[in-house]
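Note to self: the last two entries modelled the partners one at a time, which told us nothing about the interface. This time every component goes in together.
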Amino acid sequence: MSGIIYPILASLVALLFVFYLAWSVLRRDAGSQRMREISLAIQDGARTFLLREYRYVTLVVILVAIFLTLGPLFGQRVKVNWETALAFVIGAIASGIAGWTAMWVGTRANSRTAQAARSGLKPALSVSFSGGATTGLSIVGVALLGLCVVYLLFGGKPVIINGYAMGASLMALFARAGGGIYTKGADMGADLVGKVEEGIPEDDPRNAAVIADNVGDNVGDTAGLGADLLESYVESIIATIAIGVSLTMIGSELVLLPLWLASWGIISSILGVVCVKAVRGLEPQKALNMGVYIAAFLMAVGGFFIIKGMGISYAVNASSYGGLGLFWALMGGLASGLIIGMVSEFYTSSKYKPVRNLAGSARTGPAVVVVNGLALGMGSTLIPVVVIAGATLLGYSSAGMYGVSLAALGMLSILGITLAVDSYGPVADNAGGIAEMAGLDPQVRKITDKLDAVGNTTAAIGKGFAIGSAAFAALGLITAYIATANSVSLEKISLQLTDPTLIAGLLVGGMIPYLFSSLLAGGVGKVAFKIIEEVRRQFKEIEGLREGKAKADSSKCVDIAARGAIHSMMFPGVLAILIPIAVGFLLGPVALGGLLVGALVTGLALGIQTANTGAALDNAKKYIEEGNFGGKGTEAHKAAVVGDTVGDPLKDTLGPSINILIKLMSVISLVLAPLFVR
Amino acid sequence: MSGIIYPILASLVALLFVFYLAWSVLRRDAGSQRMREISLAIQDGARTFLLREYRYVTLVVILVAIFLTLGPLFGQRVKVNWETALAFVIGAIASGIAGWTAMWVGTRANSRTAQAARSGLKPALSVSFSGGATTGLSIVGVALLGLCVVYLLFGGKPVIINGYAMGASLMALFARAGGGIYTKGADMGADLVGKVEEGIPEDDPRNAAVIADNVGDNVGDTAGLGADLLESYVESIIATIAIGVSLTMIGSELVLLPLWLASWGIISSILGVVCVKAVRGLEPQKALNMGVYIAAFLMAVGGFFIIKGMGISYAVNASSYGGLGLFWALMGGLASGLIIGMVSEFYTSSKYKPVRNLAGSARTGPAVVVVNGLALGMGSTLIPVVVIAGATLLGYSSAGMYGVSLAALGMLSILGITLAVDSYGPVADNAGGIAEMAGLDPQVRKITDKLDAVGNTTAAIGKGFAIGSAAFAALGLITAYIATANSVSLEKISLQLTDPTLIAGLLVGGMIPYLFSSLLAGGVGKVAFKIIEEVRRQFKEIEGLREGKAKADSSKCVDIAARGAIHSMMFPGVLAILIPIAVGFLLGPVALGGLLVGALVTGLALGIQTANTGAALDNAKKYIEEGNFGGKGTEAHKAAVVGDTVGDPLKDTLGPSINILIKLMSVISLVLAPLFVR
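The predicted structure of the combined assembly is written out below.
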């Protein structure tokens, strides 16, 4: 058990650094009275929503925990019991803490970034990136520390540790789905009345939905994304541990390797963050990229020595590739993460041809830009999917299924910094909103806009990364699921592609992400509709609002969005829990295996498509707003606004939730596999 | 070989009936001078395009045939040779003849329908349905007759007969993709300049792209759909034959059963068509539905006696379900075809809530209606996928893989009438266009509009049916592929879901339909853009055109659409041929198996989604145009027009082409399987 000390130390270092970063943000000036007020309103809204969301989720967590505790009733061979339930609860709590921290810091960094922007780009970048880094490092720190606690509590038994991942996954689903519906319902509602009907600018304080929109950025993009990636991170480590145990035994080097690599990944991330903060005179995008590349380089070097140092493990035929099979598996994952990021950037940044052509097609009207946006997203699936398939094959040829799992871990190893870069976006976005609402100098808004544009691209990269890592994590979980089902089954379970039960499972599984997306999109539509009605009502009933003499009642919109989001997330969320359980019990482990893979296959393509379609449409609009193709006020711009509004729920609600859907169904199947086997 | 006489007789009866139907259409009055002119222009355009398309495809057919002839060079065990090549060429020719006939009759029935509409709804329905029935029955007649020829020529050897399906598939891909790009490029181009920019009504003769739009209906919706379903039809029969041979031997009852059932299906379809034509006083939709139900009933009764009469075949464990296992497998397929039709109708007809709600959401603007349309399509995948999975399981439990294949055949058995109903739509649509362009009485246009609205729903049903049957056909082909690969391989090929090679194949396969769709959508965009430029140019340069004093030069647009469509279809088409070959040679039969299933899994969901999203958006627009939510001229209507324009390429280009993509890749793999095995 001595090897467990490294991850504990690394996560404690991360958390200490988080305290330092949070302090460095909080000691900053929060700006004028008005800015503080707005920031406070956003904090209130975000806190209220998360509290309410957690209350509902707690209910689900308790029900699931009771169900897990009852595991032994299903037979002797079933190893699901109160221990699993406890690990599950710890996982849920860890995810909750991480999400809460992300929201807490994010909603405080926003006004401070706006204030810093008054003194220039560099301090504004510094504050907003510190906010993002707090989120990134607190998530990896909490995740790894919680995992170590569970590992120690239950002596490293994989069957129990899986419960930890399931807890994190359940929380993540509701955080992503609820946050996603919230943020896009509020955003669409705000835009459709404000920009389109009333012709007032984005983030105008007269629009009662603007605060809700800003709250949404925090609960959706920050807390939701964090919970999502925390889950992938935990699952990639746990899957590697589980496969390691099946090959050797608990406590062996192969079992501890993922924990060691994760530890070094945290240190690499911290050093990357320090570099970003230390560097001067670079463009924001370049500074952020540099940080990620430095961390990746450190990870590669450290990974080499860690694997070299532990010696060749014959359990995984690690003599392949000159004894460095494990290292190459890790590198495949790390590299594919970076490649997916670059591809996302290429397809969604207005620096490159795809978005510029898309913007140009807006001149032929909204329908053409939407169709082209969809086509762009569909085409953008090619490279990421091939890269993931390639990394899977490389991992397998290097070190079998352990190598595949290690590739997933490689991709997520420097999550601390990639997540820091992703989470910086919403902070910058919020800062821009506050600058607008508080009526700061247009120069300040220009700086925040610049930060925000970079944030849009980093968000797209983050989403590509999230779906890629989700696919990898799900792959690891599905493999572990099949192994677990086999280990408790009396006869070997065969998942032959020629088995119609498996085919039926694959087909139905392939449909689930579509069904789930449909339900979430319906939720967004409903929330947006209610928000629109409320904002319209306020413009009609509050005298002097349009002229800026009276104040809009934004708390009403915050409440509507929160209620609507929680209401709409419950059914799809519970469905995602029940489907694998129902299929497992009724149709057995083979159909369930098919279901999981089917959902993975469509979910991966659909997830990438929605993320890139949405981000490209968003940036095409921004590109026109910069003055291209006639700029603001032209028909092309109007068409691009429609395109952006279509893309918004695709990229921020549907796409991201699919990641978690895939992972949650897989981890539930993994934990409950013993129950489904006859 | 005596049993082969029935399918030959049945197909000859079908073709005789086709001559009668065609004669009954052609002897009708083709209308005024102006109507004849317009119809002639459409005929010319369609003929020119198909000829040009066939010229390019012939080149591909010759290349592939040469490749097949060289099969023996790859080794002794490989049974691909000049016989396969000959069957392949016959298949391509059969598909070409069927597509040509469909186009030939369709483009002549249009003006005659418009003329008949002057005397009332009943005669107009009669003529347009006769046109559709000519298409439907000529396709099943030609397909079955050609198959019998190949069967007799090569003594029923499945390895050779597969070539016939591959030929039909190759033609179908280009017909669908080329026709789809043509029809939607022209349609979008016509609408965006005509309705949106110039504010002139649909089908206004001043719009130079209107003739191209009407040509598109014929080459896309009629010839393309026909080739698509011909392929599914042929493949479901051939897959059943192949599995029958593997269980017993050539010429056994199990091998002839699919041919007998197909024969009776043709007779049932003819009787159904006669009923539709004989009935009086029913609404068009009800009359058409009645015909389909009567045919389905006759098929069920006849199927029962045919299967009962051939006795229990122990080769397929047919003692299951009281000795009627084969019958129930057939019924499962037949019923699932009908259910998918009903579900499509429910989601896409303005008689039901989904489309009405969608139309209502248009009041909140174009973005909301598009998002809701996408969500509607995504949600509509649930039942069809579950039904197909259920029919697969029922078929398998009844009679093993033979039963699964029989379920596919059951779904397609009454294709003669279902295709008649589908093909009636474009005829009615064209008739409306001619009525408008020839300036007929608004009363006439009202009648054709009524027929067209029904046609929209039947088209959606047809598309649901096409994708459902494609999934079934592909399933049969993939099973046959695996069986063939195993039969020539020295060691058993295992397609275990735990094999990363298979997983990589699945993931990449799942991405292919997205990539393919993206390429086609890009083609539509390009063609539409060129058409728009041309129509704009004509409005600017032709004096008096806007006032209706000068004539638009529609041949220019016809030419642009044809060139553009053929240019854009070649790359994705060749890609669809090369991908399975490349994966098969480079990564082997396991990865290829994964690729095919992956493409099937996403293709099924994406195909249903695109078809229903498009049809629902189209009918939501029509529902508003009927005067709901304010009717024409309102913001809601404008938003719905945008939604319709987004939906058009989804339902008529992307969705339908995916069907064939799946089938073509599967049939190529089946034919070439021996080459990929080491």
